[in-house]
Specification:
Length: about 110
């Protein structure tokens, strides 16, 4: 976990998970946990895109609920698992597609630009 200074540029994409918020920038992925300690300390996990090995979105289900699990596997950083409501499916798919594009072609800009 790292304490963050305000980021200069707006994120290319954002998503609100069940327990975390995620921001995608051209060079990094910032995961802001919503637990009280992380919020009070203004801490977040910062993953450099060059360190990300793979990203998978896996539909999950229990007897009483459904969610999407985003699993991020890194070369040096510990793996990260984030959970999203199924209503976020298209947003998560767009974020994952752009993330993978940036990982393989770092000079790509957001389709919104």
């Amino acid at each position: 976990m790292t304490s963050l200074a305000p980021h200069q540029n707006p994120p290319l994409r954002t998503a609100s998970g069940i327990f975390d918020d995620i921001e995608l920038y051209p060079d990094r992925l910032i995961i802001r946990h919503r637990d009280i300690i992380s919020r009070l300390r203004e801490q977040a996990e910062i993953l450099e895109l060059s360190d990300i090995e793979s990203v998978k979105n896996i539909p999950k289900r229990s007897d009483h609920s459904r969610w999407i699990q985003m699993k991020i596997i890194c070369h040096t950083h510990k793996s990260v698992e984030l959970s999203y409501d199924p209503s976020q499916r298209s947003n998560i798919r767009e974020l994952t597609d752009l993330l993978n594009e940036l990982r393989h072609h770092p000079n790509v800009q957001s389709p919104q630009d």
